[in-house]
Write a structure and sequence with these properties.
The protein is mainly beta. The chain starts with 7 loop residues before the first strand and ends in a 7-residue tail after the last strand.
């Protein structure tokens, strides 16, 4: 899945209607509060967590760059295509990184979610995910099946070999294992 050039976000299905996406001015109507897209793009680092709406729900932001990304459900991880000759090379390298106990992960906070979510472009309002663009096509989205819970978010960006650079953002049950 790709963005139109900005951050990707993982928004719980329960909060999709509250995700405002981007606005023409970059701020919400009636003030100087940045819109959700600008807040997502301001996340410093490979991942971060932002509040969505007023209900205490949070979105997980895949930061840094607008890299093509996919969800690896078996690992509860998002794979970011930083550099690779093929998708199979990238996925193979990701499997190796995920299996290596020596992988040096960066801690990226805690994400609390109430259940299933959607990986989407931060610029798209959640309420418009199923609406066609004026010139055709639909906003890209990918389901993220997960149980409600408190998740520890960690990320890594590493060269698996001279031609393959892997980015991973993984979430684990809070309290599980130590971040190295």
């Amino acid at each position: 899945m790709e963005s139109l050039g900005g951050a990707l976000v993982v928004v719980p299905v329960s909060a999709l209607a509250a995700w405002s996406g981007g606005t023409a001015t970059g701020v919400l109507m009636g003030g100087d509060v940045p819109d959700d897209y600008d807040r997502a793009c301001a996340v410093d680092g490979p991942a971060g967590v932002l509040p969505v709406g007023n209900g205490g729900v949070r979105a997980l932001v895949l930061g840094d760059e607008p890299d093509t990304s996919c969800y690896l459900a078996g690992h509860r991880a998002f794979l970011r295509w930083l550099a690779a000759d093929s998708e199979s090379d990238l996925k193979s390298a990701a499997e190796d990184v995920l299996a290596d106990p020596a992988t040096r992960w960066d801690a990226c906070g805690t994400w609390v979610t109430d259940g299933p979510a959607v990986l989407m472009d931060a610029a798209v309002p959640g309420a418009e995910l199923n609406e066609a663009y004026p010139d055709g096509g639909m906003p890209e989205q990918a389901p993220v099946s997960l149980q409600p819970g408190r998740w520890r978010v960690r990320a890594v960006r590493t060269w698996a070999d001279p031609r393959t650079c892997v980015g991973l953002v993984q979430f684990l049950p809070a309290g599980a294992g130590e971040v190295s």
